[in-house]
Structure to design on (352 residues):
């Protein structure tokens, strides 16, 4: 027996080291908790590559870093983008809620819905943003700020359609007919469409609608509205339409009418103005909220409220060739955080 123990002695230290390594690896692999190295695993999920969503994600990342959560230092950040594809979005939702993430941050209403629904059993901490109305999403969020699942919190941000239409009337007092393209299955689009119908009715504007269930249908829908004699297009918080905004601008130019939106920075694609939300600031707000959760604050204690920092972008080049008289006063120009003209883009210092 003594000889056997003596023969095993050289293997004791290597076996001990192997067991220690296995224990460390197991700690890293354990779902739902912080790794043994203290690095929290954060997933950021967006539904599509689109200007407002991209700006929001940038704001989230910037805020996390400003709050001390740096990728590769104390968090491990993984980015996911479904590129507008629902099966891919569902696959991503299953992946980020399988225990491989300590916190999921979603950008867009659809990403919030898909992840929240898959996460009902896993209960991974989830912070959302760039969302029109979480209480309408059927994910367990109620009307009161603290009426939400204990693992879920975020901010909603709804732009003002009435403000955009009032500005349009300032630029063209004769505005009478507005065209709206929307995706009937998208919650954000449904919410904004209801807001647009209400605002148009109150202002005596006739609203003509067309549906597009995917980006390839947007151009045809836009052409149909031009043929029906609209005076301008309005683009709201519809991801399908926003992804295909170029098609709307193309149809509008052929009809010599402008495109107006509540979703910056669509002016970069040729719209006349965007009077909506500063989505980079929206993202920063969400990033600060996520930092609180990463610091140990329970999502259950964090209220869901509406934060809607407004901004105004103006593209004077879109006035060229319009059939009706759209006039931009110096006072309106002075209100814009970004002005695009024949000489380029001019961003106010305060908006940089």
């Amino acid at each position: 027996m003594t000889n056997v123990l003596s023969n095993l002695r050289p293997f004791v230290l290597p076996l001990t080291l192997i067991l220690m390594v296995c224990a460390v690896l197991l700690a890293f692999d354990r779902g739902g908790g912080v790794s043994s190295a203290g690095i929290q695993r954060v997933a950021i999920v967006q539904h599509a590559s689109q200007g407002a969503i991209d700006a929001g994600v940038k704001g989230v990342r910037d805020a996390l870093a400003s709050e001390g959560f740096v990728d590769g230092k104390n968090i491990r950040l993984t980015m996911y983008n479904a590129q507008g594809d629902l099966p891919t979005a569902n696959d991503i939702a299953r992946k980020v809620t399988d225990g491989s993430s300590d916190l999921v941050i979603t950008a867009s209403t659809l990403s919030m819905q898909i992840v929240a629904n898959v996460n009902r059993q896993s209960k991974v901490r989830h912070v959302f943003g760039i969302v029109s109305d979480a209480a309408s999403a059927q994910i367990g969020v109620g009307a009161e700020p603290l009426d939400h699942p204990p693992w879920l919190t975020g901010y909603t941000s709804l732009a003002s359609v009435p403000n955009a239409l009032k500005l349009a009337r300032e630029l063209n007092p004769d505005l009478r007919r507005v065209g709206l393209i929307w995706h009937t299955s998208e919650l954000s689009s449904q919410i904004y469409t209801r807001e647009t119908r209400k605002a148009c009715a109150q202002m005596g504007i006739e609203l003509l609608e067309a549906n597009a269930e995917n980006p390839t249908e947007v151009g045809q829908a836009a052409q149909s509205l031009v043929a029906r004699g609209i005076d301008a297009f309005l683009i709201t918080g519809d991801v399908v339409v926003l992804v295909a905004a170029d098609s709307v601008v193309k149809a509008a130019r052929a009809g010599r009418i402008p495109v107006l939106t509540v979703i910056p920075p669509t002016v970069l694609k040729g719209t006349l103005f965007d009077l909506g939300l500063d989505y980079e600031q929206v993202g920063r707000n969400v990033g600060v909220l996520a930092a609180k959760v990463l610091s140990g604050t329970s999502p259950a204690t964090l209220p869901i409220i509406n934060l809607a920092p407004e901004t105004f972008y103006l593209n004077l080049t879109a006035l060229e060739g319009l059939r009706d008289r759209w006039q931009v006063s110096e006072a309106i120009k002075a209100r814009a955080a970004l002005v695009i003209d024949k000489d380029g883009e001019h961003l106010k210092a305060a908006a940089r």
Q: What stands out?
A: The chain has two domains: 40-158+279-306, 161-276+310-351. The longest strand covers residues 40-46.
